[in-house]
Design brief:
962 residues; ten-stranded mixed sheet; 28 helices; elongated
Amino acid sequence: MKGSARPLRRVAVREVLADVPLLVCLAVLVALLTAVAAAGPGLLDRLAGQALASRLEQEQRAEPGIVFSAQFEPADSADSDAWASDLDEDLLPVTDVIANAAPEALNGGLVHDSTRVELPLLDTVTGAGEVGLGLVYASDAPGPGAYAQGRPPARGGEAIEVAVSTRTRDTLKLRLGQRLPLSPGALDKVQATAVVVGFFTVDGTGTKPGDADGTGTKSAGTKGGNTESAGAQGAGAAGGDRLRRELPLLAGPSRVPPRSAAGLDWEARALVAPRTVTVLQAQAGAALTVTWGMRLDLDARSAARFAGDRGQGELQRLLVRYPDDARSVFCGDIADYGGMYCEIGPHPASTLQDSTHLPDVLTDFGRQWRQGRVVISFALASLLIVGLLATAVTALLAVRRSLDAHRLQRARGASATGLALARAARTAPAVLLGLVAGIAAARSLPGPSPAYRHALLVAALIWLLLPALNWHALRDRSARTGHGPAPFAAGRRLTAEAVVLLLAAAGVLALRSRGTVGEAGPDPLLAAVPALLGLATVAVVVRCYPLPVRILARWSARRRGVVALIALSRAAKEAPARALALLVLVVTLAGAVFGGLVAGTLAEGRREAAAWRVGADASYLAAHRSPDIAERLAQVRGVRETVRVRQLRVDPTSATSGSRYGIASLVGIDGARLRAAAPHSPAARALEAAGLTGPRPGKDIRVLATGARAGDRLTITSHGRTLRLRVVGTLPTDVLHDAALGPVRGTTPPRQRLLLADNRDLTAIGASDFEGSSLLLYGPRMDVQELRSLVPRAGRDTAVGELRIRSEEEADAADDGMISVLRAAYTACTALAVLLALLALVLELLLSAEARGRTTAYLRTLGLGGRATTGLHLLQLLPMVLAAVAGGTALGLTLPVLLGPALDLREFTGGPAAPTPDPDLLLTAALGAGLGVLVVVAVVVETWIGRRRGLGAVLRLGRNGD
């Protein structure tokens, strides 16, 4: 008995060892897929938090997110303590009040950035001429380490000390210790002498923000940390960068046009100590304005919490309530009637005013992230689907390997259910091990706890898949013999394909109609759509690609040799059997192509949107309100051409019938100048073609119009006067997307109609009547720093207007954290999906290798050579690869159209229209070539193995299972 038991044990051990590779593969797949399923919701939250933190950081580069301001008057001269007070110490309690009023729910994320006081211009004289000098106290001014020569202005002392940049020093011909006479300018009644004590650099090297006077400004414990320096220290040298962006004249002076009414040659800024501010204020007897900048700097956990729809609503409420809380603590519930009812030290002061753009930033982010969630969720769903398909191929390979033994056991009386349960018991340890490893990997990631139920669902699905396939292969109906088709097989196939196509169409329609779920967690419909579309594509491909393959096989039958005929005939016959491998490749390629398409479209769309926002190399909005600044901008070095664009809202009526034409935008352009500056501009070409750039005959305003015919006459009313418009032609559609119109059209809601005219025809309309205007600046090498010295990017004075520079807009678009998050997430998911697809393809090749090997062995007995064997394998697999590449690429390219409103890429880019699709052709070609290389390598390896295998290993009598 012992002797007979020993071979049985060896057989059992051999069977267990034979299953080890498959069990290891199954455990790895379970670990990967459960980790993705468990960490998926938390991963979306973390990615949303990263995108939100990056967006807040980008939006607050130019200026702090929340700015408080208050006016304060000179201290009472009769109060002796007032003269001994230090403005820096007087501002510190107010800074503490503002920082302490920050909501606790922000977890210290609202930090103090800077405190500043700017004095109006004073006149002085240097070696370069008459200078308008503005003095600035800034808590985030460069520290001693940033000074190339001298030191910062001293905090104490009676002398008025100033420090300027090295560029200002060189331009205005200043020297250390030079005395500058200060006389009244915009700040009246001032007579003093300033001493130049230092020259700082503007490249940020060695800068220590918050240490402008060499001692720094400290604060007691507050919610915001050290209120005068905590935010600046966290940003490092970025504080100095923000100071230069907000006050660019600190970096270098700006030349004033010769015809300026002020009679100045230059305008510049200089840093002073806080005591200088109070001394000059006392002389002038003027009220000054102090500003406090607060920056929203959320940590990773808080950013993830506020990134969802509910979190954004909560953050919006906190930001709206915070200024009122700060005002209440600072000065009680005193309404702002313009009086000085509050106090800053001994100075009578007004209540706090606030301005912020953060709520608008959150609104825009929310719209964009809903689309970003679609892209990332689609990538995660595709990854899970490919992983499950790889698991299915692994299970089929396991069933195929044990099929002979199980059929023998079935012949001896074993039941299919019992064998399936036994298979489930043998795979349970591997599945359990993979589940534990996947959950452990998900738990190791920072953020919320994993979604355990999703992991358990995926693990259970994988665990039950192998027993189910095992039972299906061994059920009673599968025991029938013969190679003929099963009864009603064609009908069942047609029914299955019809059901798949209907489900795919229903899923797409449902997703287009209701959109996606905005809250955290997976969207079942979004997760199902990739699988349904992949199945539908495979159903179509499997029906279509055998036809050209059969045609090629018939054509090859007329030629010498049987390799092509046999390979193509088997490829066409086995097309339905390749459905699983096709599905894996189609879903993987579609996901990768879709990701490349989205990334390329977003990159190109952001560039188009930047061109639309700016209109030229640079543009100055609201130029009609500040003609002096517009004139100075036109004279900046590098500006080659300027073009005026103006817009007026009109409601024309027909001059003949009196019917309304519709609310329209009347846009006027300097047509001839635009044609010279931008010859390819559709608006310039349209105006020139219609003859509107020449002299005007008569008094009618000639226009090109949408929705009107040449010869129509319209009337508009302006200040009680009736102006007549004569339509000379229909406005070409490409003019609607002309970037030159973007700066003015982008500031108003879309309107029903557009009227285009030359500015020479609009002389009857006053400049102040236009609702918007822009000065387009053209020049390939404009001096951006000089432009910014005239109009700071972070200017809070809306009367000055807004200067947009195309290079800055494109840099911001390229540095958008949300795009980076989408690209990183999709790249990671695509890489994992490709690896799983390669695994599935290798397993599929192993699954069908025995049948191909038997065919090759038959042909080898007939004298088939080695090269012919390689060609046979390659031709047999090539149609499937080409069909997968074609189907996956087509599906990936059409996914944005299929998803429709569920994926609106215009939310990311802006601009006048949806961005033009820009597929990543290099990625698509690389994926197709990589798949072809893999098949070639597999064929070479299989041929090499076939040569080493004897014919008896594959030619066995009585085998009819293949």
